[in-house]
Amino acid sequence: MSEPNWTEGALFPTGEPLNSTLDYEDFEAERSPSTILIPSIYALVCCVGLTGNAMVIYVILKYAKMKTATNIYILNLAIADELFMLSVPFLATSAALRHWPFGSLMCRLVLSVDGINMFTSIFCLTVLSVDRYVAVVHPIKSARYRRPSVAKIINACVWGLSLVVILPIIVFADTVPSRDGGVDCNFLWPESSWSEAFVVYTFLLGFLLPVVAICLCYCLIVVRLRAVGLKAGWLQRRRSEKKITRMVLLVVAVFVVCWMPFYIVQLVSVFRRPPDPMVTQLFVILSYANSGANPILYGFVSDNFRRSFQRIVCFRWLESGVDVEQVDYCAMPLKRRAPPLADDHARRFPLKECLASDTVYRNGTYTSRITAL
């Protein structure tokens, strides 16, 4: 094996350059503004991403009605995004100091965690798209498979697959000397050609092939929905699945918008002249911003997530004074037997009268029919 080396200009798929983190000697004039701007943007992205994904995780784990198969996949995506955000402080510090101050072990750990969560994110989106396909195209046949227990097993398989995919990162990530005499967190490749191969490898497995599979799923969904048209029994189902499918599609679209510039820069850096380092850093930040954008999308598109988020931040009165879960006491069985007078009243006035009324009496207390829990 030849002497280990590393390649100029190539980019690690999670944002860490393969050679010196940035060739800072070539743009010393930009050092002062970039030293302040880049870490500040990193800090903002990290705060938004950690807070938003923590809320998603809490909501799904807290409320029983959120534990659907689709939301279990979203939970897995939120966990991946949350862990993805944990590497941002290390990158921000490295960008501010212009070198890697955390040592060899942390270098390998940060890059490995960063890599496994990056691949887990796109694999989760692929699984979500397949879930949407089977839910819309094969609603009856897929009922036995679209269960939370099955979703958890699939999530575990996704993490295992991501671990296998990032084995090159675990093996070759290490600290390397930079041109200015410092230390950078990078890859130590046996051959220079391994760098180009790794960039193509991550582009295919981490972007192109999953996006093609996702597009195929949605094309089949569109074809199926057009074929069934307004047949009996499908109209209501189309309405119920429409919002969920739209949310997943929007999340996928934002992922492509956030990650495509990064992969383009990565390929250009390998096969042509590397772009401006500041532009490169901004595209890296854009890729990280995708993890913070997902919870925002859930809040805007999904009624359940929006109401649950409102409950977390105590805005229970936002939706015309109605809380997240609306409870109709007329439809709820009382735990203890009503007094004889109430039984006589119930015999005289059927249930439909109660349902038509805006108020009921419960345990002798006057309250609204639709009451906040």
UniProtKB/TrEMBL annotation:
Pfam families: 7tm_1. The chain crosses the membrane at residues 41-61, 73-97, 109-130, 150-173, 198-223, 244-262, 282-301. GO terms for molecular function: neuropeptide binding; somatostatin receptor activity. Signal peptide: none annotated. InterPro entries: GPCR_Rhodpsn (IPR000276), GPCR_Rhodpsn_7TM (IPR017452), Somatstn_rcpt (IPR000586). SMART domains: 7TM_GPCR_Srsx. This is G-protein coupled receptors family 1 profile domain-containing protein. It comes from Anguilla anguilla (European freshwater eel).
